[in-house]
Amino acid sequence: MNLAPLQKQIQTNCDISDARHAGRYSLCGLLLRLRDLYKWEHALLPWQEPDPAVLLEWVETRETHWETVAQHEFQALTVDNQSFDPFDVATINLRLRPLGVIYGAGYVMGMKPSFFLGEVTASRTLGDLQIDVIGRELARDIYTTPAMRQGLQIFARTSAMLFFLWDQILELRPSTREALVFALRHYGLEAEALRQQPARLASALHHVAARELEAWIYHEVGEVHEQAFDGQVWHEIVATYANSLVEIFARVTKDLLADTHPEGLLDHIIRHRRHSTLGFYVAFMRPFTRAVFPEITEAFRQFRLAEQWAVIDEARSNGYAKAASLARQLVEIHEKGSGKPPEWAIAEIQERLITPLGIPGTALERADTKERPDER
Hints:
The structure is a single chain. The chain is an alpha+beta fold and 376 residues long. It has 16 helices and 7 strands. The protein has helices at residues 4-21, 27-41, 52-69, 89-96, 158-171, 177-185, 191-196, 202-225, 231-240, 245-260, 265-271, 275-284, 287-292, 294-305, 309-336, 342-354; strands at residues 77-79, 82-84, 101-108, 112-126, 129-140, 147-150, 153-157. The strands form 2 sheets. The protein has a 5-stranded mixed sheet. Strand 3 and strand 4 form a beta hairpin. Helix 1 crosses helix 3 (52-69). The longest helix is centred in the C-terminal third of the chain and has 28 residues, at 309-336. The radius of gyration is 21 Å and the shape is globular. The two termini are 31 Å apart.
């Protein structure tokens, strides 16, 4: 099968989605995502920086292209001379999987449609779950995340993990430095050496990204088992409060439930004594998540003083109980607000659930940074 026509159709849908939703990002956030998209198009590694003038010209050309496609409808996808809705992922992949490629489509933060097509480098099952590791990507939009799930299908994207890891190392923020340095040292690596000579240490960076991606899959596993949000109610919440502080709060709560679930990421870290993944977990937490789950930060501080995994497990258990309580209250307020303007529920959720965490309503943490991208 010639994949070029399908690849072009998917990339067209990616461009339409980007054109429609680019305005939800800050200027800085959008430029960072466009920079990564340029690197992908030109087969550059994360640490290979394009000439600024060339990049700027490319960005201007891309924005002009967006203006021409923003009003277009998403294209149907043609596979084996059959036409499919672009969101009919399962049916499309029945035809693509034998060819060694996989397709993903869904809605991410702000209800932005996101699409990709990639080559499968490894596949396995975990209970009822199908896990596919994706190597070279043939089509993609400006939104990427290392791991994502649709139903019982988990996609693990190696390129997204490598780019994300490099961004964290390059930025090395004061608030994350200790945890990131801790994680890298368990691979025998120094953060400053990686920052100074990434090309020389490229194989090590690829190894870290691949190994940590395997661990990140357990966030998705936890999400499968977590039942605090009924599927229909969850979709109502993210659609009703899209691009608001409430949507971010809801996604952070759901992600925390997955991470702290007895079969989620933190349990995997504890059971397998994954020092590096614990460090990365703390380093990659978004500021909003730290406000909801401060227990893990204190537990990590204690862990560095005396390696006691029971301290981490206690924080996990407490975090799960807190997230479950927040989820119940969020659903309760949402359902109570049925038939009322969304502004009523937004005000209630902010006053009862968000403000007590010390997060002011004016401090809308938009999902346009290169921090841990769990907004699916």
